[in-house]
Amino acid sequence: MDLYDLTVHELLDKLKNKEITLEEINKSYIERINEKENEVKAFVTITDEDAVEKAKKIDDDIKNGKEVSKLSGIPIGIKDNICTKNVKTTCSSKMLENFVSPYDATVMNKINKENMIMLGKLNMDEFAMGASTEYSYFKKTSNPWDLKRVPGGSSGGSAAAVAAGMVPWALGSDTGGSIRQPSAFCGTVGLKPTYGLVSRFGLVAFASSLDQIGPITKDVTDSAILLNIIAGHDEMDSTSAKVEKKDYTKSLIRDVKGLKIGLPKEYFGEGINPEVKNAVMNVAKEYEKMGAIVEECSISVTDYALATYYIIACAEASSNLGRFDGIRYGYRTENFSNLTDIYKNSRSEGFGKEVKRRIILGTYVLSSGYYDAYYKKALKVRQVVKNEFKKLFEKYDILLTPTSPTVAFEIGTRSNNPLEMYLADICTVSINIGGVPAISIPCGVDSNGMPIGCQLIGNHFEEEKILKAAFTYEQETKFREKYKPTFKK
Amino acid sequence: MAREDYEIVMGLEVHSELSTKTKIFCSCPTEFGGEPNTHCCPICMAMPGTLPVLNEKVVEYAVKAGLATNCDIARTSKNDRKNYFYPDLPKAYQISQFDMPLCVDGHIDIETEEGTKSIRIERIHIEEDAGKLNHDEYGRGSFVDLNRAGVPLIEIVSKPDLRSKEEVESYLRKLKSILEYIEVSDCKMQEGSLRADVNVSVRKKGSKEFGTRTEMKNMNSFKSILRAIEYESNRQIDVIESGGEVEQESLRWDDISGKTFSMRDKENAQDYRYFPDPDLVAIKISDEYINNIKSNLPELPDSRKKRYMEEYKLPEYDSRLITASKYLSDLLEEAVEVCNNPKTVSNFIMTDITKFLNEKELEPEEIPFTAQQLGELVKLIDKGTISSSIAKKVLAEMFEKPEDPNKIIEKNGWIQISDEGAIKEVVKKVLSENEKSVNDYKAGKDKALGYLVGQAMKATKGKANPGMLNKMFLEELNK
Amino acid sequence: MQINREEIIHIAKLANLSLTDEEIDKYTNDMEEILTFANTVNNVNTDNIDELASLEENYNVFRKDEVKAFGNREELLKNAPSQEDGMFKIPKVIK
Could you tell me which chains touch chain C, where touching means 3 or more CB pairs under 8 A? Predict the structure, then answer.
């Protein structure tokens, strides 16, 4: 087995047994990038120049008996909306094509403190607005399982790079499904933590009250390991939760006996592809077999959650994206004679059409005369969604749903109708609205061999429960041993 | 109708920069000045991905200001975003407070010709200041300096209770002094740390309805505020008198031309799209927190004024004027501690010191000598070491070169002559040299005595003890 | 939901976007459809719901008033499209 095929915890085991070196690990991933990036196009910026040298140095340190952190020298990929000092952070937008952040995001400080090696910045839908990574200004990323298909989005580059073995794991961000849906499309494990568990400081904001950074990994164990690194209170983020630090790897136990799993029926309705539905129902059966108690339940506001999501997310985005004005950083139009020109032309030329569409929608719902009917009402419905989750989690430990109504679709075939496109987020957005954690794990493939993901949803700060359930299923069914991306052309 | 038939109705929105060490949402210094963009960081420059965290002192200072102006303090409050584009506003929104300000429903009392009047305060909220645009003289462009961006402000909004320029001035002075007393703002108007927007409307006297108001933005001197009110109220009256209608709009006062100008084209009506800032959490204030601040609130000008009238027996007018400035009031109290003579210290402040400040256009804070030195000076008069006319000269010296008044007297040989023999000698000499005046006096012209005393003072270069001089002249003349 | 072109033009102005006629048409159509959908939130009964309930969940996160200077102007200005004398340069703004 090639090193790039291994999970991080497998690599760590081999390192511990001195079977391999960090130099070999990094070389293996860099070679893989050189081999596959042309096809997959997951990276916006590759930063592998010093990787091998750095790895060698850490190998030497280990040899010399120096104390190094557990993840020293392990490669990682970072979604290109997480600020990195000295390396461009583009958000896959023309607006930030040449932007280099003057500071590191809090999660980057944590990654750097571990002395991990960043191999590059990963492609995404522009400003994280989209679900296919087709809205990147730079390139369209391909799904490693079928290069004609999209990797999902917005963290499509992250999921594709992990699936293709170009990085052992990556960070993504999730505002309405942007970690989970590409994970489902690419057969990876994607975790959106509870809102507030991971600092947002340095994550270029899309929708402040919904955004969360989370791991995209090859398996559940790696997800827990990476969550251990990035979780924790940050005084630079007022919305960061003051919860005690946990060791999430402790929940990696095969045990779902007596676990109460709710199956919200709204997530298994008409819009869900039958093969997807079937696969997720099989997961439920599997859990039952393993001793869990599975019951149908209902989240009655599911349909409204999507509308709520688009109102709130776009309202916040319209304000968050005001700072891109061509004055202090970012794209400035060449076509100006006064300040208004700079504003209007820089923004119109620098933002793509989907970003502009959401800015217009967000500006509209906040504007005078419409605020109460849309934005204020959406805040109320958000509260209703939260209440429904609260009630459900009084009864169930976790909820099980499909991650996406479909598997990955072909590039360019996504509907041009924005509303239809938004409807594809139906399975994931409520979780962000509720602020609760959810993980997407692969649970089979469809008749074309495309991976299907299921989503396990937990209560606030109960990442352990979903990790444990996910781990148990993963150990039982061993998706990674059965299926591999084929880079089908 | 004549202008006198109209009543002016005004409300003020006063912006005051808080004297915290750091900005409202980041740890950059708030210090005035500095090279452009050196008091900045990724947060106040609105770099992508940055987030605000509220400075605890800002809440404390705003609550203090609220309590000092008799406001109710909100138990739950929040920050909102006010969205608009301008180069001095790097996020394209200002973090402010919209519908849940920290303080509401207060008032402060001002003195008017008709007696004390209460001016209601609608609200006090916290927000961030904007940066500064510099313009170069060749018109090549404008230059953005964000050192002031993110400096904390409180905005104090009054009800439209003000009816004249004079009331506006007393209100502003009172507000300024309160903020200085509670030490939440240094209120340096020349540095823009106290600015006012004035809402002006006019109506016929006796009318119950308000007229349409205009808002004059961002004025930072008493002089321009008062001139602007005068101009704008007259402009509105003229518009009405000529059959027109006042338009509701924002105006910019131009000090040079002495006129107001419309700030925005009408089709560009602002829509700030306020909404709760999702990057910040609620502010919840407990009774304990409020009581703690309340019990540590310093004595405010009204209370000091009352104390000066009762304990120091100073006239109302003097007490009011001195307590209007925290600096002068502190000066008085500290000097009185040294000399135990409030009346004389107060007189110095009301006359010589005020005159000097006016002449040199200085603020009380810029008085060079200390309260200790002023107290010593009064002590020297009380001890009879110097006369009050010499004391005036000493004070003038103290403004030029502040040092211990004893030293000034010594250096200039100004110690008062209180030796009876020496004074008698001078009196005799003056009497012998001024026979005409002596005769005048004896003929009933009392004024002649003054002349004789004056001559004696001249002969002693003002150093003779005037009381003794008077007494001795009378003795000699009545012999 | 009926949206007209004028509304989109007004909104674009607020958002500082300049749109071509074609874009205005496109966004007018898009918004009509999206807002009709968004409007379904009004079908939810929220009679006893306080939209500010979240204020009770998370509050009083403050920073100490202690100076930590960033101290690197160059780094803050390095992305500026145009700068001069340590300031961001823009076309002359008429006061």
Answer: A, B
3-state SS, residue B247: coil
Residues B382 and B447 grouped into a single domain = no
> Topology of domain C5-42, per CATH?
Histone, subunit A (1.10.20)
**pLDDT tier at A399 (50, 70, 90 boundaries)?**
very high
> For chain C, which residues make up each domain, given as ranges?
5-42
Q: What is the mean pLDDT of residues C27-56?
A: 93
Of B276, B222, B266, B270, which is closest to residue B95 (Cα–Cα)? B276
* Boundaries of domain holding A139: 3-266+277-298+387-482
Q: What angle do CA A307, A323, B89 make, to 5 degrees?
A: 120
From the candidates B24, B279, B280, B281, which should be mutated to test the interface with A, based on the most A CB atoms within 10 A? B279
Q: Which of residues 253-312 of B touch C (CB under 8 A)?
A: 268, 271, 273, 276, 280-284
| Total number of domains constituting chain B | 3
What crossing angle do the helices spanning A302-320 and C21-38 adopt, rounded to 10°? 140
Boundary residue ending a domain (B291, B315, B344)? B291
Does C64 sit within 8 Å of B133, measured CB to CB?
no
Is the pLDDT score of A404 beyond 80? Answer: yes
Instruction: Indicate the residue among B269, B291, B313 that finishes a domain.
Output: B291
Residue B143 phi, psi (nearest 5):
-130, 130
Closest of A326, A356, A329 to residue A343, by C-alpha = A326
For B351, the domain range is 299-412
Q: What is the CATH number of the domain that holds B440?
A: 1.10.10.410
- C-alpha separations of B57 from A72, A161, B83, B126 in Å: 41, 47, 25, 11
- State pTM to two decimals: 0.92
User: How large is the ipTM?
Assistant: 0.97
> Do B188 and B228 fall within a single domain?
yes
Polymer length in residues for chain A: 489
Asked if C16's CB is within 8 angstroms of A343's CB, the reply is yes
CA distance to partner chain B, nearest, from residue C12 (Å): 12
pLDDT in tens, A330-382: 999 999 999 999 999 999 999 999 999 999 999 999 999 999 999 999 999 99
Whether chain A has a CB inside 8 Å of the CB on C55: the answer is no
Instruction: Identify whether residues B153 and B39 lie together within a single domain.
Output: yes
* Number of domains chain A is built from: 1
Average pLDDT score over residue span B412-434:
84
